[in-house]
Design brief:
The chain is α+β, with helices and mostly antiparallel strands and about 160 residues long. The chain is built from three helices and eight strands; from the N terminus they run H-E-E-E-E-E-E-H-E-E-H. Strand 2 and strand 3 form a beta hairpin.
Length: about 160
């Protein structure tokens, strides 16, 4: 768990579940990877040499192309993976259901290159409210529109290419 997370253990649970989902995706698509989650700069090194960090968001509604994905800035200064990959976990609206059993499905949304995050991302400061959806940000972050993510097949192709990283 990285310092600065406001959700502490719950964030760890959501993040790890998103990583497990993405590992299954990698395996299903025969993408070789090495688990490097012990470092804080990225989660995986692909066989091609590309580095990937997984960002997972808990949702109560299915993701749509106009929705955003967030990268908290408290760890963005040192996280410089080649790609961020986004996963959404759908949870039951029943707040009494705890732990991983509260999740009903996962959506692998796509990815984006680090430099594109810098170009396309919208910066928000803690306490600001996004007028488009009423979200009040608990921390400084970069938001990336789902429509700006590379689709999964494009990401598969990119992750198979040698990057020289």
């Amino acid at each position: 768990m990285f310092a600065g997370s406001h959700r502490k253990q719950q964030a760890n649970e959501v993040g790890v579940l998103g990583e497990v989902v993405l590992e299954e995706f990698f395996q299903d698509h025969h993408l070789g990877y090495r688990d490097t989650r012990t470092c804080t700069t990225h989660d995986y090194v692909m066989q091609s040499g590309a580095t990937v960090d997984v960002k997972t968001k808990e949702r109560t509604v299915r993701p749509k192309s106009g929705y955003d994905n967030s990268i908290p800035l408290y760890n963005h200064a040192h996280q410089r993976p080649d790609f961020f990959y986004f996963v959404s976990l759908m949870r039951t609206p029943d707040r009494a259901t705890k732990g991983v059993r509260r999740f009903t499905e996962a959506h692998i949304l796509g990815g984006i290159a680090w430099d594109q995050v810098e170009t396309l991302g919208t910066r928000w400061q803690a306490g600001e409210v996004d007028p488009a959806n009423g979200t009040q940000f608990w921390t400084d972050c970069l938001n990336i529109r789902m429509a700006d993510l590379l689709e999964n097949q494009v990401m598969i192709d990119r992750l198979q290419q040698v990057t020289g990283s």
